[in-house]
């Protein structure tokens, strides 16, 4: 009898633990049980660096969707995103890849357009802006600075 009571309390403890983990995963965004709702659109970027499935999609500072896939199509990155059913995006909206803070993760920001035409489910956001390539800009600046310094040194040589 005592063994049965111990078995039930261990089972209850494990059940409470599993439900707690499920709650935390859904609240922290690691697991989306509502994934079936919403509709999918795509956007092509020359560089989708830092975006990955699970990254958020924002409109006016509010999370309205999530990145579901990123894959290569020709020489461009195609990003698939799922938006909430109540979100409607104009066909001249702009999708840009942004960074949360200085060292934060990447997310997609949708800037509304002015058109009265909406992007249908399965449609495509045509206007995109790739993320700023800071390491590339720094490398170009340093190379230019070094070249300018070398040229100045050569012109002042006796």
Write up this protein.
With 158 residues, the protein is an alpha/beta fold. It folds into 2 domains: 1-31; 35-135, no CATH class. 31% of the residues lie in helices and 30% in strands. It is flat, with a radius of gyration of 24 Å.
- Based on secondary structure, the structural category is alpha/beta
Task: Give the helix tally.
Answer: 2
Placed side by side, the strands forming the largest sheet appear as: 7-1-4-3-2-6-5-8
Q: Which H/E pattern describes the elements?
A: HEEEEEEEEH
Share of helix, binned: 25-40%
Secondary structure tally: strands: 8
**Overall pLDDT level:** 81
Could you list some keywords that capture this structure?
158 residues, alpha/beta, 2 domains, eight-stranded mixed sheet, flat
Topology of this protein?
Elements (H helix, E strand, L loop, with lengths): L1 H27 L10 E7 L10 E4 L2 E12 L2 E8 L10 E6 L6 E6 L12 E2 L1 E3 L4 H22 L3
Parallel strand pairs: 1-7, 2-6, 5-8
Antiparallel strand pairs: 1-4, 2-3, 3-4, 5-6
Q: Could you provide a short overview of the structure?
A:
The protein has 158 residues and is an alpha/beta fold. 31% of the residues lie in helices and 30% in strands.
